[in-house]
Amino acid sequence: MASYKRLCYRCKKNYVPASWKDKFVTCYDCTKKESSVEIQDPKMKELFNIPEDYYKENSFLRNIKLSYIRYNSLTDRQIEAFKETVKKLKNNPKKK
Ligand SMILES: [Zn+2]
What spacing in Å lies between the alpha carbon of 64 and ligand 1's midpoint? Predict the structure, then answer.
């Protein structure tokens, strides 16, 4: 998917796979603490219950999870996009 990388705007240390339209990307390490809170809503918990590698690989998935944690809600479109992205990752195992 993304062959393009950007420097994490928080730590300015790690490069993050990003698409050209992602202006502010954060690396996995920077978001890890924030995104490791327990999710209460069982439905959302199930949605976010994907392999940790997906979050490492994909900043979009991290962002969706973080915005849920911050605002405690997601739009239907965000949920759909999240599911789509997970599906794509499942169908295209990362090539080295
Ligand atoms: Zn970082």
Answer: 17
